[in-house]
Write a structure and sequence with these properties.
The chain is an alpha/beta fold and about 725 residues long. The chain folds into six domains: about 5-105, PriA, 3(prime) DNA-binding domain (GIY-YIG endonuclease, 3-Layer(aba) Sandwich); about 120-190, no CATH class; about 235-360 and about 370-380, 3-Layer(aba) Sandwich (Rossmann fold); about 400-445 and about 505-640, P-loop containing nucleotide triphosphate hydrolases (Rossmann fold); about 445-500, no CATH class; about 650-730, Ribosomal protein S10 (Alpha-Beta Plaits). About 30% of the residues lie in helices and about 25% in strands. The chain has 22 helices and 31 strands. A seven-stranded parallel beta sheet has the order 11-12-10-13-14-9-15, with helices on both faces. Strand 28 (about 680-695) and strand 29 form a beta hairpin. Helix 8 packs parallel to helix 9. The longest helix is centred in the last third of the chain and has 18 residues, at about 660-675. The structure holds adenosine-5'-diphosphate and zinc ion (2 copies). Adenosine-5'-diphosphate binds next to helix 9.
């Protein structure tokens, strides 16, 4: 038996504080069951607070006389495994975060530091003690007890409910329930009410692998058993990557290990899930944002118990509480949605996956038709095994991609948003009763309003972004929601030549409606998909052939599989190219390549037409040849010259709050960085591209270095009065 540790290092559960340090307590004899990851109660100042055990030790450097004992053990089972604690600690160093923030990701949503534990409460069931007396109960309440009233009314309809769902519905707090319980009206007790998730099932037969697929699978299996080097599959759309993932997962399960399958939120469709449930019917857990907190908590518990060895989900699935991970698949590994952009700890799920895999001796399999420049670079350098799958299943031909120079169209007298070629091809497609997808990377009736005489652009006074024109004749800010009426004349010079400029999906819809009599249009963008379920409903409408033209923003570019689509049009490739970000070219190539993959998925041939004002740009030019490596070779030269990632490190420090305070803070941070980092290149402080958001000014400092410096920035993130400082040592977006 191991010697019993006498001291425990804990992370206290205080959310607001910037306490990023381990505190030590002694372990009293009767609590010798305490293990790493356990939740405990400790004295902290004059309070008693919850804490998590992250270290066990036989001695501590402090004076043992002054060390206080742990008061209580709060759960039978530890909340975190040793592996999770170590990955959390790695995240703290890598992303300049706080330990408490990192640990939080490993808990189901709802189980939050410093907040009431909805997750735990989840299992509480609320029941009316005497349903027949409900009207008397209601009559007895004070008219001010609105929440209590609502709880009772809800219970009147449904006398037994989960506490969490009842609270969510009625906006009541746990205290409301306690009050009603004290009156003897309701009982609140733990009960096992388990929600079964209903998962769709797909019925296609299991195919025989192609030779490319067999080779890819072989590499994964080799690494699964030995070496555990990550694998990057560079496989074109339809090369059969998903089929390879399915086989690899099956192999992993046969060897008694578990698997995480990550897909971007947007591809977490019924179609995708069905392919997994078909093979692994009742072994699959799904974690996605559409689940209620309760459903999420249940899935989490089942995963933790080991009942569901396969976890499919978006970014947060990387934290799934599996204990014997053998395989982590990251499909579409280049996707920006794997990066956490909110909050103070901005992790990248790919990096976390690689870290977890190290502890489990698991293989990470990354797949993409357009790998992130960083990933491809690492693969070429030998950090990952690179597997190419350049052919489509059944050697289906690639769609024919044409570039159209819109400058020539304009000088030739064509002022419409459709080139001659696109007009002709869409007409032919509709004539043949086939389907088309038209992409426009903007929403709203048109992008912005511009005065042709003086150049005035209507913009939001809160956010410093241009306002978007909507059909109700209003201009709206897409960040803060501000809106105003479109004025008939320019507020700056009085000219009447103030016009909508650029094009939006609504205008595109109108253009098609006017010019193509046979078109039945479905529009997919942030406006039409705001309501829950509408995204899926609109796609189904298109899939079932009730519409023949799907138009939309980048939302439609990815992961969809429509066999009857034979034409894909891109209205303007330039919108993405002109973003103020060093990854703009990479994003443009990815977008165009992905959208090109949408054509000709079925037995019929596909055509792609890309319109651009800059068709000779390498990110556009490489698309028709389906030549990722041509794009990559150009891009890496430029990254090397400017020492951008992956050939350098870039960190962004964002300071936001009231203008004056922000400037003072920014100057201070700037000075201390310059003192500390003699060899780094430091840009700024300067207003961020979005220099004002929701009324707060945003300034940034960009630090570019040859070496990773995140460990030098850990003392920066903080909330200082009204100013918030966040650090992203690996920023993916610089807005
Ligand atoms: P990717 O993930 O690379 O886009 P998928 O695995 O989704 O490719 O395969 C594309 C299509 O081809 C799917 O409809 C899939 O069912 C089918 N498919 C995949 N592998 C095979 C195979 N070996 N034989 C027949 N059909 C296959
Ligand atoms: Zn003007
Ligand atoms: Zn705004």
């Amino acid at each position: 038996m191991r010697a019993i540790a006498r001291f425990a290092g804990v992370i206290v559960d205080v959310r607001a504080s910037a306490v990023n340090k381990v505190f030590h307590y002694s372990i009293p004899q009767h609590l010798d069951k305490i293990r790493l990851g356990h939740r405990v109660l400790v004295p902290f100042g004059s309070r008693k607070i919850e804490a998590y055990v992250v270290e066990l030790a036989d001695r501590v450097e402090l004076d043992p006389q002054r060390i206080k004992p742990i008061i209580k053990l709060l759960d039978l089972e530890p909340m975190f495994t040793g592996e999770q604690l170590e990955v959390a600690s790695w995240m703290v160093g890598k992303y300049s975060g706080l330990y408490a923030q990192a640990l939080q990701f490993f808990l189901p949503t709802g189980t939050r530091f410093g907040k009431e534990r909805v997750g735990v409460k989840q299992q509480l069931a609320v029941e009316l003690v005497h349903p027949e007396l409900i009207d008397d109960y209601l009559a007895s309440l004070s008219p001010k007890a609105v929440r209590q009233m609502q709880v009772l009314l809800s219970l009147k309809n449904q006398p037994l409910q989960l506490a969490s769902e009842l609270c969510e519905k009625t906006k009541a707090s746990y205290h409301t329930l306690k009050a009603l319980q004290a009156k003897g009206y309701i009982s609140v007790e733990p009960r096992a009410i388990e929600r079964e998730l209903e998962l769709p099932v797909e019925t296609k037969p299991v195919p025989v692998l192609t030779s490319e697929q067999r080779e890819a699978l072989q590499v994964i299996i080799e690494e699964f058993h030995e070496g555990h080097t990550p694998v990057l599959i560079h496989g074109v759309t339809d090369s059969g990557k998903t089929e390879v993932y399915l086989r690899a997962i099956a192999h992993c399960l046969q060897h008694g290990r578990q698997a995480i399958m990550m897909v971007p939120e947007i591809s977490l469709t019924e179609q995708t899930i069905a392919r997994f449930t078909q093979r692994f019917s009742n072994q699959v857990a799904v974690l996605h944002s559409g689940l209620s907190e309760g459903e999420r908590y249940d899935q989490w518990q089942k995963i933790k118990k080991g009942d569901l060895p396969i976890v499919i989900g978006a970014r947060s699935a990387v934290f799934a509480p599996l204990q014997k991970i053998g395989l982590i698949v990251i499909d579409e590994e280049h996707e920006g949605t794997y990066k956490q952009t909110d909050g103070l700890l901005k992790y990248h799920a790919r990096s976390v996956a690689l870290q977890r895999a190290k502890h489990h001796e698991a293989v990470v399999v990354m797949g993409s038709a357009t790998p992130a420049v960083e990933s491809y670079h690492r693969a070429l350098r030998g950090d990952y095994r690179l597997v190419a799958m350049p052919n489509r299943v059944f050697d289906r031909p690639f769609p024919e991609v044409s570039l159209v120079d819109m400058r020539a169209e304009f000088s030739g007298g064509n002022r419409s948003m459709f080139s001659g070629l696109l007009t002709e091809e869409l007409a032919k497609t509709l004539e043949r009763q086939e389907q088309a997808i038209i992409l426009l990377n903007r929403r709203g009736y048109s992008a912005f309003v511009l005065c042709r005489e003086c150049g005035y652009v209507a913009s939001c006074s809160n956010c410093h972004v241009s306002l978007t024109y909507h059909r109700d004749n209003r201009l709206r800010c897409h960040y803060c929601g501000y809106s105003e009426m479109l004025r008939p004349s320019c507020p700056q010079c009085g000219s009447h030549y103030i016009r909508r400029f650029g094009t939006g999906t609504q205008q595109l819809e109108e253009h098609i409606r006017k010019n193509f009599a046979q078109a039945r249009i479905v529009r997919l963008d942030a406006d039409t998909t705001r309501r829950k379920g509408s995204h899926q409903r609109l796609l189904n409408q298109f899939r079932e052939g009730r519409a023949n033209v799907l138009i939309g923003t980048q939302m439609i570019a990815k992961g969809l599989d429509f066999p009857d689509v034979t034409l894909v049009g891109v209205i303007s490739a330039d919108l993405a190219l002109n973003f103020p970000d060093f990854r703009a070219a990479e994003r443009t190539y990815q977008l165009l390549a992905q959208v090109s993959g949408r054509a000709g998925r079925g037995p019929k041939l596909g055509k792609v037409i890309i319109q651009s004002y800059d068709p000779s740009h390498y990110a556009v030019r490489s698309v028709p040849k389906h030549d990722y490596t041509a794009f990559y070779r150009q891009e890496i030269v430029y990254r090397r010259q400017l020492e951008y990632p992956p050939l350098g490190y870039l960190a962004r420090i964002l300071i936001h709050g009231p203008e004056e305070a922000v400037k003072v803070q920014a100057a201070e941070i700037n000075q201390s960085l310059r003192n500390k980092l003699a060899h780094a290149r430091i840009y700024g402080p300067a207003p961020a591209p979005i220099s004002k958001l929701k009324g707060r000014h945003r300034w940034q400092i960009i630090v570019k270095t040859k070496r990773e410096i995140s460990h030098l920035l850990t003392d920066l993130p903080r909330q200082d009065g009204t100013v918030t400082v966040t650090v992203d040592p690996d920023p993916l977006f610089l807005l």
